[in-house]
Amino acid sequence: MAALTPSPSPFATLLRRSKFASYDPSIAQVFTTYGGDAHRGNWGLKRPLALRRRGAYITVKSVDTQAQQTEWNSGENRAKFMQRYAEMNVEPTRRDPCERFDSEFAPWKDSGEVEAPRLVQNPLGLKPRQFRKYLEQLRAKRPAFIAYLREKGQTDPRIGKKSLFELAQQPDTDYHASFLADETTEVQNNLQSRVIDRRAHKSGGLIYSRPSFLQTYLTTKPLPGRVLMDAIRYSRAQKEGYLVGFAGMNSIFYKRHVVGDVKRMKWNDNSDPKRGVAQFRIMPPLLRALPVVVGKRQGLKGMKLVTEVRNVAFGDDIGRSNTYLPGSVDYSGAFPSPPGTTGGGHAGPMDFSTVTARMQKAMQFQPQQPAVQNTLEMLKAIIGKS
What we know:
Residues 342-347 have low confidence and may be disordered. Helix content is 29%, strand content 17%. It is α+β, with helices and mostly antiparallel strands and 386 residues long. α10 (352-363) packs antiparallel against α11. A five-stranded antiparallel beta sheet has the order 9-8-7-10-13, with no helix packed on it. It has a three-stranded antiparallel beta sheet with strand order 1-2-3, covered by helices on one side. A three-stranded mixed beta sheet has the order 4-11-12, with no helix packed on it. The N and C termini lie far apart (73 Å). It contains eleven helices and 15 strands.
């Protein structure tokens, strides 16, 4: 008779199901707590903390030190920044495509290829022990590489009967890189492979959706900002602008894009507290560097995000005739403002009586095809019953 495996203790089961089981001191993480646990200071750690309010965020450096204490710092700035950026719903852009890949791999693209670059091992990103192991793997692949050249030599006249040394001296050929790229692609595309895709997230987890500029415009509203001071961005051509405090960031606002009357605030004059305040929209920002979250744990201090904003004049942003949420029932069942009206006339519910008249008028100019005629009759019947 087989021995029965003892069931795990309730504490082990609870620990395995908790978020604390995924805690790693070398990875930057932000923790929060809810409800009555926040009132009691229960953060799921070894001991309660003095921070006992809802909506708080912390980063934990050590759960239990030699002095039997839990080392933690405030994580409000990181959490609030992510929330503010999520409200803007805009996808950043990256200038360097190499930063989209893991440091242990590097993109490689043949001069004759058009598709996206493939991945090869990056020796500069390997540690000494990993590099020695990588060399052993390359030596074992020598017979497969020779067979690869023989197969490729049937269609590539540059190979011919040359030796490996002669092929390595040709500056316009990278047969070894092509061979390694093919093997890396084959391993990653194999369904039985256990290798994790080394392609890093495009924005480093800053935003996971990929909205278009039109989608961002329709689903978000302008946010308030304050024009702080004059600024000049030095590039090939000097561009005059303002420095704007917007969504917790210092953004550039070029004067050539100013709409309406915009005045910067006066630091020595507090008679007008609303001076310099305006409504802004953010342009797709440029993400220059991602923070290191494993090991160094830089957090947002290591992120370099270049942002630009544009102001929105009063009435321009609500100038759309259909101001309902795109995709909603009200948005689909609304008609635009009368022609010739300005100032953003609001949309209203659809008048089915006028639509029926329009359908009857349109049927007179439609070709009398059976499919078209049947469709128009069906639509007319549906609208008439509404």
